[in-house]
Amino acid sequence: MSISDCEILELPKISDVRGNLTFIEGKNHIPFDIKRVYYLYDVPGGAERGGHAHKALHQLIVAMSGSFDVVLDDGHGKKRIHLNRSYQGLYVCPMIWRELDNFSSGSVCMVLASNFYDESDYYRDYDQFLEAISKKI
User: Do you know which Gene3D superfamilies this protein is assigned to (predicted)?
Assistant: First the structure.
């Protein structure tokens, strides 16, 4: 997998004078079934989140409110993506190191995941991640 496999997905947006509605269906709007949802909020100014990669997990990252940046790293290149629209999601495939930073005040980051939490699916050490990448080439 590479950062070129990670992309912004446009989600359905139903506009109405009463407000907008966006919905997400697994295997329809995103390329995986949704097994877990979590969200980050009240992130202090200057703080970073993420700092890991997943061996097999697929994710969709959405800025539900406010904005933040996601830095993607496949061991060969890096890409910074600014998220600030609740009708767009960043698809992140397995074996991509991710870091989230530059959170605006009051931002909320929602993540849809393809599987339940499993600590053994994580690379939390960047050097171990790079070593795993080099073995797959």
Answer: Jelly Rolls
Q: How far apart are CA 81 and CA 72, in angstroms?
A: 8
Q: Which of 52, 54, 76, 82 is catalytic?
A: 52
| Residue 83 and residue 70 in contact, taking contact as beta carbons nearer than 8 Å | yes
Residue 82 bears catalytic tag: no
Label residues 47-70 b or e (16+ Cβ within 10 Å = b). eeebeebbeebbbbbbbeebbbbb
The range of the structural domain enclosing residue 35 comes to: 3-136
d(Cα 127, Cα 118) in Å, to the nearest integer? 20
pLDDT digits (tens, 9 = 90+) for 2-52: 999 999 999 999 999 999 999 999 999 999 999 999 999 999 888 889 899
Q: Angle 101-103-108 (CA atoms, 0-180°, nearest 5)? A: 115
Helix (H), strand (E) at residue 7: strand 7-10
pTM of the model: 0.93
The number of residues in the chain equals 137
